[in-house]
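Board work, copied verbatim: MFS transporter
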Amino acid sequence: MNEAAKLRQATYHLYTFTVSKLIATFGSSVYAFGISLYVLALTGSAASFAINLICSILPRTLLAPFAGYVADNYPKKAVVLLSQSASILSVGGLLLYSMSNGLSLTAIYIATALVSASSMFTGIAFSSSIANLIDSDRIQKAMSYNQSALALATIGGPVVGGMLFGFVSMNMFLLIQVLAYVLAVLLEATMNFRLYTKRTEIADSKANQSVWQGMKEGAMYLRKNRVITVIVTTAIGLNFFFSALMIGLPFVAIQQLNVQAVHFGFIEAMIAVGMLLASIYFSVRKEVKFPLQFSKRAILVMSLLLAGVSLPLVAGLSYWGNVIYLLVLMLAFGVSNVFVNTPIGVMMQKDVEEEYRGRVFGILESMAMAMMPLGYLLFGLLYDLVPAEYVIWACSLCLLALTAYNMRPAIIREAYPQLAEKPLEKVLS
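↓ predict structure ↓
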């Protein structure tokens, strides 16, 4: 295939990838919200809701390294199509069970776990394929579109899920979910996942190694690449300390500032709005030249924004002052979140060798997901025992220290040796 034809195919991939990602992500968001409402309506129990949440998180945490191995050692297109088909079968099976026996909590928990696991396989295979689907010059645009899809799903998923839950039967709700997954599979089936592959015959021959050897090899590759290790460990710390925000924001806003539920909904939605605006910005700007340095600054800003959540607790603002302040703060948080993720995502697509990319993303997914329930539990307890502002300040300081150490100047120069040769004013420009 000549270069012009490859570029046309890559352009097709860029938009097909975005649409299929939007459909799948939006569908998952609608499903998660609708099923959660159903569990609460059926049982009225927070414990039942929590079990459904665990069924969503646990498979992703345990199986992500294995999913990375599968993505590296088997055709990525087959992995994507099979895992998406597994999601169709899981939701379709729940629909058939509901039509014959009525929904039960056990059936919902099993379906939730299966959908979570299959969507995780799809996500890791897709994440490790972007550099194979899209030409190098447009990887940042692809990552930006991916972030836009996530933001739209975050904004629209609960809205559509709530509307469907209120106006259609649960069977129709599940049928719509199945149709969304089918449409995503049909789009993904038209894509060439080896368009820009660089894998050698030696790399492909490693498909015969055992699962354990393959996963161990991925961990060894990660340890040997100090810059990628820094990215992964920083991401894990970021997820852990920002669990304090996910728990603390509703605690501070609703419990301590008495913000009304409808206004709090707008405050949370501003995170996704900020993500969408930042994604649009990255889709039209030039590729970031020094992504590790760029993301370091964005993380430092996020750390300060985290500390800013405590300001209404000590500043004595009016009710509307608190609401407007939190709206702006969460908008800034959403923007900075994309400013961290997009440049780092592009860097990992380009710098991680193709035969290890799935395992690196799998390890990152597993460790990051493991930090979330741990953070929820720890900070949930701390907010009950310690004034909220102290917890928030401590997390902000810890994140500042972690970032300053992990992404210290020596690491930045190791990633970009040319920075040591540039005058300071050129580096900052």
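DSSP finds 19 helices and no strands in the chain.
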